[in-house]
Structures are given as C-alpha cells and as structure tokens.
Specification:
The protein is an alpha/beta fold. The protein has a single domain (about 10-175), classed as P-loop containing nucleotide triphosphate hydrolases (Rossmann fold), CATH 3.40.50. Helices cover about 30% and strands about 25% of the residues. It has helices spanning about 25-35, 80-85, 100-110, 135-145, 160-175, and strands at about 15-20, 50-55, 60-70, 85-95, 120-125, 150. A 6-stranded mixed sheet has the order 2-3-1-4-5-6, sandwiched between helices. The longest helix has 17 residues, at about 160-175. It starts with 12 loop residues before the first strand and ends with a helix. Bound molecules: guanosine-5'-triphosphate (GTP) and magnesium ion. The site of magnesium ion (MG) has 5 residues, from helix 1.
C-alpha cells in the first residue's frame, strides 16, 4: 500500500542525521542529496533543520527525514536527542580541516551509543586533492576500528553515487528489521 506524505506519520520516517564541526559542509551535502544548487557562500545553520523526502526505491516507498544539525557547540548537548530516533548517522569531516577530523572519533563514540556501527557512515567532504589517503589525523583510529571513509566533494560533485548507494542499502536493511 502506498501512502501520501500527508498520510505518513513520524513512525513511517527513517531519520538520517548529519553531524560534524561547523563549516564541514553538512548543509551542502543535504542540498546535494536533494539536487539543490551548491552555494560557495557560508551561512551557518541555526539549530536543526528537517527535510522530509518521499522516495521510491525499487517497488517500495520510503519516507526519509534528513536532519541537518548545526555544528555550533551551542547544540552539542542536543546531538544525542536527534540520534535517539535515527536510522542512520552521517558523520562528516573536512579534508582541509584537522579539528573537524579530530572530532570525528568523539562523534563516532556518541553515535555508537544509539546505532549499530553499520548504520553510521563516515564522510570526508571537500575531497578535491585527488589524494586517496585517509587524513593522518584519523588514519590509525580508522584502521584499528576497520572503518570505511566515504570521500566526497559537493563542490566538484565527487563520490555521490557510492555514498547514496550506502544510504539506500542501510534504509532497505533497516526497513526489513
Ligand atoms: N571547497 C569546498 N567547499 C565546500 C564543499 N562543500 C561545502 N563547501 C563550502 O563549505 C562552507 C560550509 O558549508 P555548509 O554546508 O554551510 O557547512 P555546515 O557544515 O552546514 O556548517 P554549519 O551549519 O555551520 O554547521 C560553504 O562555504 C560551502 O560552500 C566542497 O565540497 N568543497
Ligand atoms: Mg549547516
């Protein structure tokens, strides 16, 4: 049976939460997913913004709720409350910003309190150098935990299909539970 988005209740939505330091590109990635144009101008997000998306994957209809959380420290205490109802956490760092990389481990620990590791994606944005290697700052940790990193560049439109395939696969797996 297919539902219209006005008939869907909160329980029908799969929440995808985007987290990371200010300016790593969370809002840009959400806009990229929604096929909205890229903006060079930085406008810090305030609080959280939800985008409800009705999507068809194969024969099935899914309601996704993209949850774009400001990276400002003021909201760091709210992160756990957004993760409580989440199906996926997308943790984003910036290839050009060491602080954002160092914070990923801590975010990962918080996300693991709410979700199994296979529902947490690590994304490196601003991947424009063409260098494949994982940033030195997090290389040891990534290796020791056997984690995968998804390198993307919203600006250069790099890495979107693999990243999206993973989100879709997780949603399909979670919906079967
Ligand atoms: N070079 C480059 N810049 C990017 C890329 N993606 C986003 N940006 C820029 O990075 C800046 C910050 O992007 P936002 O998406 O607003 O960052 P945010 O993580 O949402 O920031 P907060 O809302 O403050 O937490 C903007 O100036 C974007 O144009 C990218 O792939 N490459
Ligand atoms: Mg933002």
């Amino acid at each position: 049976m297919s539902l219209s988005s006005s008939e869907a209740t909160l329980a029908d939505y799969f929440r995808v939460v985007f987290l990371g330091r200010p300016e790593v590109g969370k809002t840009s990635i959400v806009h990229w997913i929604l096929d909205l144009p890229f903006s060079e101008e930085y406008q810090p997000s305030i609080g959280v913004r939800f985008y409800n998306v009705d999507t068809i994957l194969g024969d099935n209809q899914y309601f996704l709720q993209l949850c774009d959380v400001s990276g400002n420290d003021v909201y760091s205490n709210s992160i756990s409350s957004f993760l409580k109802a989440a199906s996926i956490a997308i943790l984003i760092f910036d290839y050009k910003n060491k602080d954002s990389q160092m914070e990923i481990e801590q975010l990962y620990t918080i996300a693991c309190n709410h979700l199994p590791p296979n529902q947490i994606l690590l994304v490196g944005n601003k991947f424009e150098t063409g260098k494949k290697e994982i940033p030195k700052t997090i290389a040891n940790w990534v290796k020791s935990q056997n984690l995968a990193i998804y390198p993307v560049s919203v600006r250069e439109n790099i890495g979107k299909s693999l990243f999206m395939q993973n989100i879709i696969q997780i949603i399909i797996d979670v919906s079967k539970k």
